[in-house]
């Protein structure tokens, strides 16, 4: 699959995103996507469609709380699924721009 990525691995063109591209990006970062990952990716993409902003970690946690349940609404849960800097990784895999508060 041939898509343009920036030097940090984010898609240059949002229209290039697909579930297949998401899986390739995730695998390149050592993540094998599960249904739990996909639900968060869906929520993140829905948020972006609505607000045209890549959500930060706090917003993602709130989306999980509202749509999945409070038992999974924590930064620790996100780190277990997406490692390191989860908001950055979630947006990257979701094909969205890097959140403005990420280095």
How does this model look, in words?
The chain has 103 residues and is an all-alpha fold. It has one domain: Orthogonal Bundle (Arc Repressor Mutant, subunit A), CATH 1.10.10. 52% of the residues lie in helices and 0% in strands. The chain is built from five helices and no strands. Helix 4 packs across helix 5. The longest helix has 17 residues. It is globular. It starts with 18 loop residues before the first helix and ends in a 10-residue tail after the last helix.
Give a short summary of the structure.
The protein is mostly helical and 103 residues long. It has a single domain, classed as Arc Repressor Mutant, subunit A. The chain is built from five helices and no strands.
CATH architecture: Orthogonal Bundle
Strand content: under 5%
Number of strands: 0
Number of domain modules:
1
Q: What would CATH call the class?
A: Mainly Alpha
**Count of discrete alpha- or pi-helical segments spanning 4 or more residues:** 5
The largest sheet, given as strand count, sense and whether it forms a barrel, is: none
Could you spell the SSE succession in H and E letters? Answer: HHHHH
Q: Which range best describes the helical content: under 10%, 10-25%, 25-40%, 40-55%, 55-70% or over 70%?
A: 40-55%
- What quaternary form is this? single chain
Category by helix and strand content: mainly alpha
Shape: globular
Distance between the termini: 28 Å
Q: What is the mean pLDDT? A: 94
